[in-house]
Design brief:
Length: about 150
């Protein structure tokens, strides 16, 4: 007997609009940044709006590798509230990461930005979100983060 083959299937995109970055400074393990999530939308197999609260809590290590941990929620078009915890990392050429920090455009294909979102909801229609593992590919823009969510089959 062999183990099942890992495959993924695209399911939806979360576009999270972001506010101004708050920096707590160098903490000994890196620079702590907090980026408010102020709204957005969900499109694809799940549709809705990102609620205007939550944040991405980042640590920028000395080599510019960024550890990410975002906590926020979205409301589906049919009224379900879905809590999201999304952990991941962003890394790439230092000069491009500095451009992103300044809010300048960078081709998302040049930055490695991957996450593992976990979902929680009490709404029966969306319980499947809690019964699977998801991975995501993301892109940072000056005013938003676009996250393509894929279900691991």
């Amino acid at each position: 007997m062999t183990t099942p083959t890992l495959e993924t299937r695209y399911v939806f995109t979360i576009t999270a609009r972001i506010g101004d970055v708050v920096t707590a400074g160098e903490t000994g393990i890196g620079v702590r940044r907090i980026i408010p999530i102020i709204g957005g939308e969900v499109t694809g197999a799940v549709t809705g709006k990102v609620l205007p609260f939550g944040a991405d809590f980042q640590t920028i290590r000395p080599n510019e590798l960024i550890d990410l941990e975002a906590k926020y929620a979205f409301e589906t078009d049919d009224g379900a509230t879905v809590y999201v915890e999304n952990k991941g990392m962003r890394f790439g050429p230092v000069e491009l990461l500095h451009k992103l920090k300044r809010g300048e455009p960078v081709d998302p294909k040049l930055i490695y930005f991957r996450t593992v979102p976990k979902f929680e909801t009490g709404h029966e229609t969306y319980r499947w979100l809690m019964e699977h593992i998801f991975v995501a590919s993301a892109a940072r823009h000056a005013d938003r983060v676009v996250i393509d969510v894929h279900q691991v089959m």
